[in-house]
Write a structure and sequence with these properties.
Helix content: 55-70%
Number of strands: 2
Strand content: under 5%
Structural class: mainly alpha
Number of helices: 19
Order of helices and strands: HHHHHHHHHHHHHHHHEEHHH
Distance between the termini: 53 Å
Length: 366
């Protein structure tokens, strides 16, 4: 939507980013209004729209939608692919075999191990593209970030503001995912979560930053480390702000090779998808019911395939279509009577009764 709102050509800096910032602020305002409504009215209406079968599908779809990004990063070159595998194994080994405190830092330690191994084999033995430290050596230790003043245009506002609806659905899935990890319902904090995202988005866009929302990557980190304290995020925010004034740190991050990043992403995004399954299990979602099975099947396919829906100049990506698709489809199929459910199984899909194995056995040798 930012590209559409600013008519960005795709080459060089976006000279109309200020127009997008105005639209992002508008989206933040809409998001804030929704958050305030949830705080005062409650979240039950959201639960009605997004029961566990839907939220689990959305969470899983998010992980599957991000998966191609991880794989693409890991497949930059043959050497990067092997380094991604090494990084995945390093993360897994840290998470399983290291002592307690260190076991909670698998992404950090595993990433460092992958980085060092990459450095040895690429820069040392020349088996892959060497890490270039030129930018790191030239970067200043301290410097101010660039700020941009937003401008407001009706077309950009109309195009970007509706994104707030997608963020609500996505954030709900994230909160449900964290709740599933912790074994504690966080539903009563949904309004605060929405409002916090909204205010952060408004503040960020006011200075030239991007829209802010909950990041699925962080959920993956929590799943690995099993650390859910909100104090950690406050500390992380302060550290991030300070690091934002250090071009040297930004240059260091840019030296991380794609193979290592891809390996880390494979673990993180996979954990997000697995969390969707955890939501279904913990809430006892009955997949013998056709409505549940079909809702999940469609959502996962839309998310994994990144099904994009274009409505005029407005585009909804795979996560959005999976989210709205699962919500709408479930409401259409929602049980309104007491009649028995038809069981949708693999046998039913090929017109074979669950107890009828004769036809399968008869053709077993063909």
């Amino acid at each position: 939507v930012v590209i559409a709102a600013t008519a960005y050509s795709g080459k060089g800096p976006n000279t109309h980013i200020d127009v997008a910032l105005g639209g992002i602020i508008a989206a933040g305002v809409v998001y804030a209004i929704i958050g305030i409504i949830v705080i005062f009215v409650g979240y039950k209406w959201i639960e009605y729209l997004m029961p566990p079968v839907v939220t689990g599908a959305v969470v899983a779809a998010i992980g599957l939608n991000l998966a191609p990004v991880a794989v693409s990063e890991a497949a930059t070159s043959q050497f990067d692919t092997w380094m991604a595998i090494v990084t995945v194994l390093a993360v897994a080994a840290v998470a399983v075999y290291l002592p307690g405190p260190l076991r909670r830092l698998p992404i950090l330690i595993g990433g460092i191990i992958g980085y060092i191994i990459y450095l040895i084999f690429a820069n040392g033995f020349g088996l892959g593209k060497a890490i270039d430290f030129t930018g790191l050596s030239n970067a200043a230790w301290v410097g101010l970030p660039n700020f941009t003043t937003p401008t407001f245009h009706a077309n950009a506002v109309a195009l970007i503001a509706p994104v707030a609806i997608i963020l609500v659905a996505e954030n709900l899935g994230h909160v449900k995912a964290v709740g599933a990890m912790t074994g504690r319902s966080l539903d009563k904090y949904l309004g605060r979560a929405f409002l916090g995202d909204a205010l952060a988005t408004i503040v960020s866009a006011s200075g030239g930053g991007t829209g802010v929302t909950t990041y699925a990557e962080n959920i993956g980190v929590m799943a690995v480390t099993r650390i859910y304290s909100t104090l950690i995020f406050i500390i992380a925010a302060v550290v991030a702000i300070l690091l934002g004034f250090s071009p040297k740190f930004g240059a260091l991050i840019h030296t991380i090779p794609p193979g290592v990043l891809g390996g880390l992403a494979i673990v993180l995004f996979g954990l997000i998808a697995a969390t969707g399954g955890r939501i279904w299990v913990q809430n006892g979602v009955d997949f013998s019911k056709s409505r549940n099975l079909i809702t999940v099947a469609v959502a996962l396919t839309l998310g994994a395939g990144n099904f994009v829906l274009n409505v005029g100049t407005f585009s909804i990506g795979g996560i959005g279509t999976a989210t709205f698709g699962s919500i709408i489809l479930y409401q259409i199929l929602r049980e309104r009577g007491t009649k028995p459910e038809e069981v949708a199984t693999a046998d039913a899909a090929v017109n074979v009764e669950p107890g009828d194995k004769g036809s399968l056995e008869a053709g077993a040798g063909e």
